[in-house]
Sequence to fold (216 residues):
Amino acid sequence: MRLRQVWALATLVALAQGGAAFADVTVSQSNSPALQGTEQIAALMGVEQQLLGAIPPSRLSAIAKGTRQSPAVVRYDVEFVDSQPRPEGDAEWQCLTSALYFEARGETLRGQFAVAEVILNRVDNPEYPATVCGVVNQGGKGGCQFSYTCDGTRDVMRDKTAADRAGKIARLMLDGAPRGLTRGATHFHTHAVRPGWARRFPQTAQIGAHLFYRQP
Fold:
């Protein structure tokens, strides 16, 4: 029974990582007397721990909450995004939707997906809050991490089309869409500014009006 559970978990890992192979993780099905009882259980539990460790924390949370899976292939074009189901979700989804709308609605769809990557990369980084809302609303030296949260204006998403697309992008990303645009970026800024950290962090991508960086 325990062996079947581990293989089920292995399948879950493959799905959670978009079908990525996990050839380095193996489970012996041998009936050798040398591996019996508590030793066999311990070995299987070790493999289970290894499999769980391969899943990003945000994806584990999504799986635990029973959220739907993203399509195996995500396209960064209007036709694909508009074809997605009407988005909905909890506070985490609402926070990511708002961040995409107010920080990136003027960008291309690729640029909006990239900003979502940055936020979720921070969620998975122990140096930042462990929730989307925590990351989006986090303060910092001299102000907020995301300017729209403390610019003194009322945050109302008046552009229905842009808000709907931001919501669909947020839903796709929270459900585990690939994060392949920014190579693990945790920061971004527009061409109009040059923050001090940009001189110290390696740049990973340039998409639209934004430059992306990964914190060392």
User: Anything to note?
Assistant: The two ends are 43 Å apart (CA to CA). Residues 2-55 form one domain. The chain has eight helices and five strands. Helices lie at 2-16, 37-53, 57-64, 78-82, 91-104, 109-123, 132-136, 160-174.
